[in-house]
Amino acid sequence: MYLKQGYNTHMISKQQTPIKSGFHAKTNADEITKGLDLNEKIAIVTGGYSGIGLETTRALVDKGAKVIIPAKRIEVAAQNLEGIVSKENIVEMDLGDLNSVKKFTEDFKDNIEKLDLLINNAGIMACPETRIGNEWESQFAINHIGHFLLTKELMDTMAENDGARFVSLSSSAHSLTGILWDDIHFQNNPYDKWMAYGQSKTASSLIAIEFHRRMISKGVSGYSVHPGGIITPLQRHLQKEEMIALGWMDENGSPSEMAKNFFKTTSQGASTSLWCATSSNLDDIGGVFCEDCDVAKRKNEVDESLQRYFGVADWAVDTDEASKLWEVTEKMLES
């Protein structure tokens, strides 16, 4: 599908090409952060108390960063982060409630003078049709709109801090579809949980592309990340039969051969986010989609049999699409 939609190549950053980082798909988080000193750094990690978000938080804290965790479930977050993050750094926020997001950002700006790293890691996947906010489809609303407001409200705080970075977690599912401009919220067509998820993950990439364009003159960079295949609580809405059909699991409920080859541990899944957040190799590179601890190849550079899982579709790094989505999302927030 991604090869059928026409995107002009000049709209894609020339930086969207691997840089031979020296890391790989199974690089662990501590290998990425080895030798780093993050003692003066302040980070926000959404979803930073579960799955790869928890490993991201742990790795940053281990190197001295102060990490603020916005959490919908404060008690669960406090339990999962015990001994890692102090309770005062776990702050209530619900990405599905824009008033909650606004309160979080206002409190942050009132109490903390700078922000070095914003990692939009939280998300939901393939859930039953749900409407929130202004009759918005919930995957797009939580994965994109909530994160968009969070990011937009914190941009000025990051702009005052040269070298700050924004990391937005996408997924290989972005390859399912670009933005469904005529029906983003499935108001005219039947709801499809996978197309909805894929669209939201394309949006998660495009927000980083446009953020970078708007912020690079202020010394701040943006990156989108495919963390890889990892079994985490993100799969909670999937039945065993569906995971078998997807090729993730065999009939006995064990990981399939494909999953054994390609799936990562949560530590390995956190590595690309950490690489984008901290690597000096990216000091002059931004506005790109990354995977396996490197800048990703474009889809047409990947073996056809692997294009569903690797590489980035042009629509997810298209600068015109990114600018359009930013403007459309701003209008949604005004309505």
How does this model look, in words?
The chain has helices at 29-33, 51-62, 74-80, 98-111, 138-159, 193-215, 240-245, 257-262, 266-278, 319-334; strands at 42-46, 66-71, 90-92, 117-120, 131-132, 136-137, 165-169, 221-226, 288-291, 294-295. Helix 2 packs across helix 9 (266-278) and helix 6 packs across helix 10 (319-334). The protein has a single domain, classed as 3-Layer(aba) Sandwich (Rossmann fold), CATH 3.40.50.720. It starts with 28 loop residues before the first helix and ends with a helix. The chain has ten helices and ten strands. The strands form two sheets. It has an eight-stranded mixed sheet, sandwiched between helices. Strands 5-6 form a two-stranded antiparallel ribbon. By secondary structure, the protein is of the alpha/beta class.
Features:
Rossmann fold, eight-stranded mixed β-sheet, two-stranded antiparallel ribbon, 10 strands
In brief, what are we looking at here?
The protein is of the alpha/beta class.
**Can you say what the CATH homologous superfamily is?**
NAD(P)-binding Rossmann-like Domain
Distance between the termini: 32 Å
Q: Mean of the pLDDT scores?
A: 90
Low-confidence blocks of residues: 1-9, 232-236
Structural class: alpha/beta
Q: Which architecture per CATH?
A: 3-Layer(aba) Sandwich
Radius of gyration, rounded? 18 Å
In what range is the share of β-strand residues?
Answer: 5-15%
- CATH topological fold name: Rossmann fold
Number of helices: 10
Overall number of domains = 1
Q: How many strands?
A: 10
Largest sheet strand order:
3-2-1-4-7-8-9-10
Q: Could you describe the largest sheet, including whether it forms a barrel?
A: 8 strands, mixed
